[in-house]
Amino acid sequence: MLGARCLLWAVRFCSSAPCPRHKPSAKLSVRDALGAQNTSGERVKVQGWVRSVRSQKEVLFLHVNDGSSLESLQVVADSSLDSRELTFGSSVEVQGQLVKSPSKRQNVELKAENIKVIGNCDAKTFPIRYKERHPLEYLRQYPHLRCRTNILGSILRIRSEATAAIHSFFKDNGFVHIHTPIITSNDCEGAGELFQLEAAGKIKIPEENFFNVPAFLTVSGQLHLEVMSGAFTQVFTFGPTFRAENSQSRRHLAEFYMIEAEISFVDSLQDLMQVMEKLFKATTMMVLSNCPEDVKLCYKFIAPGQKIRTYAEKRLFNVAAVDLLVPGVGELFGGGLREERYHFLEERLARSRLTEVYQWYLDLRRFGSVPHGGFGMGFERYLQCILGVDNIKDVIPFPRFPHSCLL
Predict the structure, then answer these.
(1) What is the pTM of this model?
(2) Nearest to 42 by CA among 81, 80, 95, 92
(3) Which DSSP helix (H) or strand (E) runs through 44?
């Protein structure tokens, strides 16, 4: 207890940063600068990338963006601060006064006193052209640069907001977050489409296995969540999953993110479906509330006329399972109740000669088992659904699919 108190005190009161003798310019993100209420000439510093340059005889106009918002901050400077290095795509640090803008298009602008170019950008050879709306297919060729465009910036901000909303939903509803392993010895889906792991340069014989058993990249965290559901009544995981499926479909990736939940003391599909629906609605409402301009841009340039579908669905029942299908995307949710009958499982595993491998799974039914069930939601497909994005490769920062692993 004493050690914890000392650590807390150190975090609160200790700092390695020296106290400045002179008050420096306050560093603001573009988002914070645009939302500033006090525009009485406060001296600030903004860092970002130039989105546009317009030089007149006496005045220089820049628009600077740092990824914190779709809108850029207008910088107004004396033409003497202009230079050949100030080009579209170059990175800059601007110091000056934040003042109320006379233009109706923005509330504030930055009256620059000093503009420092941090990194040059040759606009002539830069693959992203100023004021040109590049097709998403074209941008996929440049995974290292496409995040600098407005449309990918909006999608990735929405992705970040949706991630936070999902964690918030589960926390508010009493779920415990579990980090399920990425490396596993089981095939949860049973489809056989796994990436097997082997140490580089090792001889491919059983005795040389790094883990003594064949190991794979996970296709699902369900089995590990089932383990945890024996100690926690509600658990979830949110992480990468992998499928070695040789598909070039617009709905498939080799690496993607899954939200999976497992709930104990559940004996009806209706209980599961309620959680699925609440998760979808709560996440979508938070995205719409916190990223309105980004969502609007997606609808304008990706899916004109698209309207948000709060719960477009078709449910397919198979014994005790449920799928949620959405137009244009396909399966978004998949879930069901788990088999809890010990003797039934024991017989099935014996027929398949898997009793020894899955003895731990039988143990879950022997020691304090309860009725339980769960579901999974594909995160990238969720983003496709709410934004109207046709290809799943455009809603993930670095898409991996057959014959393509750029960066």
Answers:
(1) 0.88
(2) 95
(3) strand 40-55
